[in-house]
Amino acid sequence: MKRFQKISKDIFLLVVLQVSSLLMPSLSQAQSTWPSQSVKIVVPWATGGTVDMGARVIGQKIAEQTGQPVVIENKPGASSTIGFSQVLKASPDGYTLIAFESSYAILPSLFKKLNWDHSEDLAVVGAVFQTPMVLVVPEKSPFKTVQELVEFGRLNPGKLNFGSGGVGSSPHLSGELLQKEAGIKLTHIPYKGGGEALSAVLAGNVDLLITATPTAIGHVQGGRVRALAVTGTQRSGAFPAVPTLKEAGLANYVVMNWYGLGAPKNTPPQILNQIYQLTVRALSDPGIQSRFAQQGVEPLTMNASEFSTFIKAETIRWTAISQAAGLTPE
Predict the structure, then answer these.
(1) How crowded is residue 61: how many other Cβ atoms within 10 Å of its Cβ?
(2) Tens digits of per-residue pLDDT, 91-119?
(3) 8 lies in a domain?
(4) CA-to-CA distance for 217 and 281, rounded, in angstroms?
(5) At what angle do helices 304-324 and 170-182 cross, to 10 degrees?
(6) Which of 38, 54, 129, 229 sees the fewest Cβ atoms within 10 Å?
């Protein structure tokens, strides 16, 4: 009888465990089913920019690979902090991601206090691509080369101005770095966005602008602005005839805009890695590579660990540039 009771008890426990496993799947089982619903990628900038373009291209490829929709949601404002605040408060389940770029490394130089921990609360997926910036001047500018511009700037401190999409933006700090490396004094004119700054160049209201290659490429190819140099370590496929700033005599000037994907803190590493592998496969698509190359965009694949280390180094670098420019967090 006791033996029968023991067997009955064992059977009962086995049934309970089986039912429990069906009703409450383990975390690993839940992760293995990702994605089982649509995925949202938040872009903390307006539509039409490089971040938005990249998110849509990669989002489409992820959707094709997984069979689940990928929705792009633009949340611009407050130097991208509105979008970040929304994403970093979301559930860490891999269904809410953020597409961001190198200005993330500048945020600690702009704000004394963010709504999240800059170094801890963003779980990075990995780097996606990078692009050099390009120094452009108005079509009717007298300057045909960087050397001519720098020579004039050294002889006429403060008479040249440069535009940007706002204080603390990548174009702003790129202009500050140009002053430092060239030994010239420029007057900064901030606008409300990169598009407005480029319009000012087109109208001849500013003397120069350093902006993302995809933003300027159509205007350069159309002859509406003149490209004097690119900011990468080598010439851009988008402007093969345009020298780098290093070739133009500024040996230490290198600025690359980088772009990546992130998620809320505590998103399972298995899901982050799965998303990273999907992006790597997307970037290996010949059609995507051709499209990016035409825009001066270069693949940049770094996994979560590599990208995290890179972002920390970039934050240190841009903090130093911001301090040298006299920027104080508000």
Answers:
(1) 20
(2) 999 999 999 999 999 999 999 999 999 99
(3) no
(4) 27
(5) 60
(6) 38
